[in-house]
Structures are given as C-alpha cells and as structure tokens.
Sequence to fold (1009 residues):
Amino acid sequence: MTAAIDVFSSGPDRTGAAGKLGRGNQAGSPRDVLPGSKSRILHGPKLAETCAAWALAGPAFLLLIVLFLLPVIAVFIIALTDWQFGALSPKFVGLANFHEVFSDEGFRISLFNTMVYVLIVVPGTVVLGLLIALLIESGQSFRAFYRAVHFLPYMATLAAMAVAWEALLHPTIGLVNQALSALGLPTANWLRDQTTVLPVLAVIGIWQNLGFAMVLFLAGLKSIPQDLYDAADIDGADQWLDRLRTVTLPMLGPVSMFVVIVVALRAFEVFDTVQILTQGGPGHSSEVLLYTLYRESFQYLRTGYGAAVTIVFLVIVVALTLIQARFMDRRVHYK
Amino acid sequence: MADVQIVDLGKAFDQITVLQNVSLQVADGEFLTLLGPSGCGKSTLLRILAGLEVQGSGSVSIGGRVVDGVRAKHRNVAMVFQSYALYPHMTVAQNMALPLRMRRLTALQRLPVVGALLPETRRIGAEIAVEVTQTAGALGIAHLLDRKPAQLSGGQRQRVAVGRAMVRHPTVFLMDEPLSNLDAKLRVQMRAEIKELHRRLGVTFIYVTHDQAEAMTLSDRVAVMLEGELLQVAPPQQIYADPAERRVAEFVGSPKINMLEGVVREQGLVDVADSALAIDVEGEAGAAVMLGIRPEAFYVADRAGPGALTGTVRLVEHMGSDLYVHLDMRGVVEAVIARLLAERAPHIAIGQVVNLGVRPDRVLLFASDGSRIRPRRPTLAATASVTPIGEYVQ
Amino acid sequence: MSAAHGFVRPATIARHAVLLLTAAFIMLPFVWMVSLSLKPSDEIFRASFSLLPDQWYALENYKRVLTSAPLLRYMLNGVIVCAVILTVQILICAPCAYALAKLEFRGRDALFALVLIGLLLPQQVLALPLFILGYSVGVLNTYAALVFPFVVSPFGIFLFRQFFRSIPDDIVHAARLDGLSELAIVWRIMMPMAMPAVIAFSIFSIVSHWNDLFWPLIAVNDQRLMPPPLGIMAFKNEETGTDYGPLMAASSLVVLPLIVAFLAAQRWFVEGIAKGGVKG
Fold:
C-alpha cells in the first residue's frame, strides 16, 4: 500500500498535496509528514493562517471587548464612585457603596427575599421536574403529550403569562379565590398580602421552570444504559423502588446536581413577575435582587450604588456557575 | 447444576420475526455457544433465557423446571453483559455484593440508615463480605475491591462482571459477547480464563458471540444461528467439517469457503470451472450443484486435467506459514481463495497460471436450495445415521 | 423489561392521574387567559365561574387590541428585533467559531477565554454600563438600542465551535484544495453541515429575545418601539386592571407565535432551549 501512495503523490498534484500538508500542520496534524521541506512550507501559511483567523474572528473579538469585557470592568470601577447618572463629576469613594449596600435595610430584605424565593423554587422545581420525568418515562402512552404540556410555560412569554396569573389570583374574580370559597376555604389577596406574595411568586417560578428541569431529567434518564437495568433484574433488584435506588437515582446524580444549579441561576434572575405583578410590594415584601438592581440603577439613577448591587449579583451568579463547572468536570470522570 | 431445555421458541418485535421455532437442549455442565452474525437473534434468545425478555411462543425449562413467566431473579441464572453493566457509582465490592444483598436482606434491612440498626443486618452483611472477598480472591481482583469501575482496566472490569455473576453460585451462566470490548491480546487471555472458569465451576455456560474463534475454542457444542433460525448444533469440529447446510459452511471458516457452481456429468463426476472432479455423488446427470471447497483443501498440482482446477493468480497474500492465493477461474464469478503452505508453493506470482488439486473427500456438496448433499459412501444400508465426522476430520 | 414486570394497571392509572394533575396546574393560566379573552367585561366581573362565555365577546376583545392598542406594532417590533439580532449574531459568531475550531493562530486561547468570560456574565450585569454606553452614543430609545447588546453571542460562538470541532479536518482540507477561501468554507461548507446547531441556536435566540423584558424596559420608552413583553406591561398599566378581556386577548396573542412554533417543531425547541438553558 505504501507504494501506491508514493505513486500518487509524485504526480502533478505534488504542490497541492504539499500545500495541503502545510495547512494540515496548523490544524494540528503531525508535523513530520514531509520532513525535509517542513520549515520552508510552514512559515508562509502559518502567518497567513493567523491573519485569516483574525480576519474571521476580528468582529466578534472587538464586540466581545466592547459589549462584555469593558462593561464588566466598568461596573467594577463605577461601583467605587458616587456617580449619579446625569450628575457631572463622579468622585472616587472606595468601598463606600458596598458599605451602604450591606448596611441598607432595604437591600438586606431584598437579598433575603431572593434567598427565600430561590429556596422555594429550586427544591420545588427539581423534585416536581424529577417526579414528572420519572412518571413520563415509566409508561409508553401519551409521552409526547405530557412532555409538551409541561414544557409550555418555559417558552411562553413570562410577562404575558404574569398578567394571566394576576387574573387567576385576583381577589374577587380570580379562579383561585372562587374555587377556595366554593370549597369553604379561606381566601387571600395573594399578591397584595405580605405573607403570601413571595410564596405565590415562587409558585409561578416553579410553574415556569418545571418543564426545563423535566427535559434535563428526561435526557438523563435516556442516557442510562438498558444493560444496567437488566443487570439489576438479574441481581434481584427488580421492584420499582429497588430499581430506582440501585440504578435510576444514582445514575441521575450528576444530572440532578446540574439541574439544581441551573434552576438556582434562573431563580436568582427572577424579575419579570415582580416587575409586572408587584413592583416589589407590598412594602418590600417581594423586592428581589434584580428588581433592586433595576430600580436603583435605572429609576433612581443611583449609578454607583446600582453598580455595587450588580457586583453582588455577579458574585452569586459566578459562584454558582463555577460550582456547576466543577461538577461538569466530575461528571466526565464519573463513567 | 441444571440443564436447559428450549422448545419451539418464537419471538417477534413489531411483526419482525427475530426468533422462529428454536429448539435446543443444553446438557448440565455443558459449554454451549450461540454463534451468528449481529442481528441473528442470538442475544434475544439469551435474554429470553435470562428472563429479561418474554418469548412470543414456546417454552424454556431450566433444571427441569418450566421458567416461562418466572422473573429473572428467581431463575438462578447469572449474566455477564457485553458492556459489563457494572454500577458506576458502586465500588467493586458493592457491585459484587448487590445480588447477595438483594436475596438475603429484606427490604427493610436494605434501607439506608434504619436497615443498619436492625439486628440481623450486620451479621448477614459480614457473611456477604466474606463471600465477596473469597470470590474476588479466586478471580485475582481482591486488591480492587474498594475501587470504582471507572478506575479499572477493561480486563479488570470484565473480571468484576464475572465475579458479580459468580458470587451467588448460579446454575446457569449466560454470557453476552463478554470479550468484544477488549483488545485482541487481552481477548485471547480472557478466553482462556473463561474456559478455565467453566472447568472449575462445572456449571452450564451459554455463551453468545459472533466471533468464530471464541466459539471454536471455548465450546463443547456450537449452535449456529442466522436470521432467527437455529441452523446446526454440533461440536466445533463438526460444524466446520460437516456443515448441515450452505449458510453454515459460508459463515464458519476464514477465509470464507469457496462456492463453485457445478453440474453433475454422470455418477461420480462433476463438471466445475472448465474441469471435472471425481466426487462421490448421487444425482441425475445435468443436475446443478454447489461445491463448497475450503481454502486449505487445495494443493498445488503438477498438471491440469481431471481432478484439478486451473486459475490465474490475481493476488497473493503472505501470512507467514501460509499463502492466501486469490485466483480467477473460468466460469467462476468470485475469486477462488486457496490457502497453501508457503514451503510447498514457493514462487507463485500475480498473473501466473496455477493448477490446484482438490481432495474429493474434502469437497462439500450443496443442492441449489442450500441443503447439504451427503456423499454416498457411508450410506451402506443401515449405517445412514452414523455421523460422518470421523471421516472428515482426518 | 417493562413488559415483563413494568407497572401493573393501578400504577398506570396513578401515572396518568398524577401527570394529568400537574398538567392541569401547568395549563391553568393558559386556559384562564384564553377564557377571559373571550368574555365581555361584565361577565368577567360576575362572581360565578364558567370556562366558556355566555356571550361570545372574542371578536370585540381581539379587534380592540389589534386596532385601538398598538399590539400589532409591538409584535412587529418583536419580529424585527429578533430577526435582526439573530441575523447579526450568526454573521458575527460563525466565522469566529470556525477560527476557534479549525485554525491555529496566536491569541486563540485568549480569544476563547474571552468567549468563556462572556458566557459567564449574565445580561443583567452588563445592563448598567451598556445603558451608559447607549446613552453616550445616543442610540437609546431606537431600534438600535434594542439590538446592540446582543449582536455578539458568546453562547453562539461556543455552540458553533463545539459543532465545528466535530466536523473532520479533512473536509476543511479538501475544501481548501478545491480553492475555497476561508470565509467561503465557513458559509458554504461548515454552516450547512452545522444546521442542527444553527437551528438550536436560532430557537434559543428567538425565544429569549421575544420574551425579554429587562433590557427593553431600560432601553426604550417610546411605545412605537416596544417589543411584546414591554408592550403588554404598558398596556396593562394603561388599563389599570379594569378591562381584562382585551388585556387577556393581547397576552394570548403575544404568547401564541412561540406556542404554535413549539408545537410544530417540539423536538428542535426542546433541544435548543435545553442547550441554551445550560448557559442560562
């Protein structure tokens, strides 16, 4: 066979083949294909390839700098100033904004509310999502139907659906209160009551994210090899609870951790429902991190303070993402 | 210890028949291999035996007991999977202990925290640990007990999978292509270990593979399957030398058996490839037959003429002690492959015309429907039922 | 196998019972929204409850939001903004992803690190500086304001790069031998092969920008520029919660396009959004 290759590459194609090999080197193939002529061929294309690459990636590179890197640096700088948008000369004030943020009762409430919201939404979404995924996978009938229905809220415009929720929760004409009073149960003004507003928003959060968790769990369930269930059958773990404990849940472990983090990230970003339904009220009882960020930065135009809030938010999100990245690494080693 | 009786087994998935009328008796302690290309239904058959799949029709008995409808765990069979199917989140020891835990501990005792507090749990657990350690020791994996499957090499995983199957002393061992995920060298080594394991345990082994070498070296008997049908069940030698039909002859053997079209000229003489071979055949003059000639049945003949076939060399492959010579023959579509001893055929070159002799008793005859036409000789009246294996193996 | 000892009949019933219950919880706001959008105001405010209206008022409600309220304008804005964002994103991201996946050059690792940083940063963190940027360039309250933060998508670059890497190098080499320029390789060879990634990314991009409220709220206040979510909010504030029928009709219409698209191409949606959601 080696003879055949020699025959072909010594024809008029030689320059083409050499050029191809030269290119191949930059794309990561072994360098010593043409030992003698290596350096001569490589030098030109190497430079040319770098030029071509930057021509292709240049627009994206510049935009990434302007729209991502510089802004995030700017946030850190602004957070150290007392800038009020529109005011003329911002002064450097060091960590004063952070000091103010953490001593501000309003911000502490906002952070606390966000935590409460996340702590309701994450377990609710993950447990329900897992349950629904397991139930859907456990039978053959109506799989596609159930999957589609449960996924609907995730892509429905939340601002519009918030309006629908408001109608549903309306104190007098809402279906919820009508049903409760028909059953003789106490009713509430759900979105105007300090004790109910946050849990109700969390229920909407669960409603919205549940399908997403379900989809990830379904994918996780699909990736469990049938062999493991067969082995469990033969080993005697053939009741559904044993199968669940021996195979399903342990194999879903990594996916579950991933779902927890991703749902937590989404829960920390809650904004639309608060903006449309409660504006943080009544009082401060539904004020959440992003809403505070929005109000301070864009309504009160307290730019420096808003930047400090932004950084708190960023730290939380980055921490969660890094945990997730660590976990994805572990998942790779799992198998 | 148990024999396995399979009677008239059938199975279809969505109207596609994967098994039809499979009947097979496996003796207690026998090593039987199901051999066939992928998709022939051999794995389905094995899964039905294990209780992982329900047959469409027919019946299976293990150890004299009909097991149709009996769950996998109550059949006392063990299975080694192609992927090994080790639980990735459990250590080797936990993997091996699982079948024992599931059998000996109650559901309550298996509960995570509560179970450990119950009186018997600890004692049974200790027993299980002892047995696992013994089995692991026997397989040479005792030092791996605390590792997880991901930390093991392919061969080690294979041993753990065998250990998990062994630990509860099943009466039947089922193995589904257990060696196909290993590299060639390790495969040969593990093949020997499985053979040794069978000898030591003395229980029934049913082994599925598409690899002839595995089937030939391991088995007491080989069952050749194709398209859901059992074609022949016989000892390896006989499968090779005395195939029941054309499909068996073509599946077994490498390089593949040569199939040449021939016409019976008169009793005892068949026209083939511009020549004639003296073959002991009963048949009307003019009847079409297929001659199956194994590559090693050829030898270099001095001259052309009756009893020899003439061809032009198309390709020569040097295999060390042997030469595979591909020849074009007049009247034969595919190249004929002859396996010649290198020392006896020193200078064969491409384009050369070669005369190949054939030993008539090494020619297998098939009718046009693929069925085997047996030679007349052993048909001396009542001895018709004697298996001709002795004659052909020599 | 499930056939051998799967769920027996009571379990099957339990499965459907639970799933129908959760499905009802999921569908409730949708059903209520549509139901109210069919009713006249007095019927909505009646104490008794019925799913279907006594007096069909659908025509009036939907006609009102389409004529007197600028809902059509909102939806058109949404289409324009989504289309422009997606087009520019693909134009910018694909060549960059190709360079990252298939070319070796100085600065590649730095560029990729930049992409990963972009992937890490939630959009809300960048809102403040981008608002200031938009203000100083003078584009606030224009279509450009709605589009410019999104013209480059780190997620798009990342996704395309992953996909391009799975395409064999030999195809690139063959294309070069056939005389294609690098840019031609991106558009004529890589992109057609990367269609699944393109579709997944398109769905992710369209869904997230059609539904986005946060940035439009900051970037525009002119009614004529508002995309659907902001429009709904404005409409709701105007109506002050008295005229539910048209408000529900407007909400239904805003939600409708994505629902229809989703039902028509479920598999793609689930994949696109699951991939994107991983990014968050």
